[in-house]
Amino acid sequence: MQAGSASKTFAVIGGDSRQARMCALLCQSGHRVRAFALDRCALPAQAQRSESVRDACQKADCVILPMPLSRDSGMLNAPLSSQAAALSEVFSEMEPGTLVCAGAVTEEAERLAQKQQLRLFDYLRREELAVANAVPTAEGAIQIAMEELPITISGSRCLVIGCGRIGKALSARLRALGAAVSVSARKARDLAYIRAMGNTALHTAALEPEMAEFDVIFNTVPASVLEKPQLRRVRPDALVIDLASLPGGVDMEGAGELGVRVIRALSLPGKVAPLSSARIVLDTVYNIMEEEMK
Length: 294
What we know:
Distance between the termini: 10 Å
Shape: elongated
CATH architecture of the largest domain: 3-Layer(aba) Sandwich
């Protein structure tokens, strides 16, 4: 399904400014939109504000829930709502068989959806979203570095730990800005890719002797990679930016004890580029709907 296809009815429930911008994008594409738990933000005039989840979801072709689906145990992530709502209550208001798309779905949420016989899909697990999200994540990480460092990115010595989607996007942009870029990985194929892209390849398990060389260190690996032995080698004027999902890849307690400056930068797409992030999520939702219609 594409944005310009036949008009559909969408229920957009909860979430932050990305969800609000999604309402606008859907309306611009000629779809019918009902919103709930977004009462603290402006919505396009074409979007209908619903009084309940049941009203919003009635005969909806798709229900779009936020990313992450929940920040507190069992509660809908709805910072723009004046009232809290339990996921169990939200799901119970939907008709069995409803197509529901959400981000970072927990096992508890999956059980609740299954009990209600909902067709729940986690768009955060989709490859096309992960690839697209790497771009605003990389740009946001560079923005943080530019704001926090007393030097330019051009001419700086940067380490990117990890050669996944974000690592590739980030290292390419740092290099384009004139940085001297080293990238670490564990697999031989990734090390070969790093060299082929013109960056210095390092093995993630052997970073300790290299740490003092860098002005800024970006971690993209969601595993413990920067512990005290590595952090001891980080220069006092250097900056560490942890982009990995919680619990991250940096020993925060050890960094504090050693005086290493660490910024934990989570959910950057929604913070630095909410409109682009909304488009990325919406394109993924369209893909899910198209697949379900086959």
